[in-house]
Amino acid sequence: MTGDDTPRPLSDIERDVIARLLCVPFPGRDELRTQLRFATVEGGCGCGCGCVTVNLAVDRVAAPATVMSGAPVSADISDDEFYAGIVLLVDGEGYLCCLEV
Description:
Elements: E1 8-9, H1 12-21, H2 29-36, E2 39-44, E3 54-58, E4 73-78, E5 83-90, E6 96-100
Antiparallel strand pairs: 1-2, 2-3, 3-6, 4-5, 5-6
């Protein structure tokens, strides 16, 4: 983690990106949508390249976990000058843990 590692709410952009990724149907999607309501950012990537990857924490008492795929959904965004790969990661217990950009 880098910078201020104090937990904070997801930004509107972070929340919107995750919500869009969770529009695609797959097993466990509804549980991850529920988790999104209880997710916070607990830090950022420490790679030093200025990426916007964030580590996520979910209130495990408030939200269910049944997703067993480590990377249940991803997207590629590109145009003539820009490319980004986005992956939503889930930890070994089935909770959202990272929005990797």
